[in-house]
Design brief:
Blueprint lengths: L53 H21 L3
């Protein structure tokens, strides 16, 4: 419809935190419940900023990938 703005909710569905009772992901974007599941999209963000989140999502993905590599080398994954 002309003149109307639409938005979709892509953020905040997988809150990041230390407590598995109040959050879905740990600080590495790793699921508390499923140890081999890493969520590296905008769902760990509590809210959106003014700009595009692409660079932050990429940084979180690289950080999670490095953590996955370290876990694999140790045999923890």
């Amino acid at each position: 419809m002309p003149g109307k703005e639409y938005s979709i909710h892509e953020l905040g569905t997988c809150r990041m935190g230390d407590n598995p009772r109040t959050s879905v992901l740990n600080k590495w974007n790793q699921s508390h419940d499923i140890k081999d599941l890493f969520v590296v999209d905008g769902s760990s963000f509590v809210t959106s900023g003014r700009g595009q989140p692409t660079m932050t999502i990429q940084a979180l993905a690289f950080r999670a990938a490095e953590h996955v590599g370290a876990m694999a080398k140790r045999g923890d994954l």
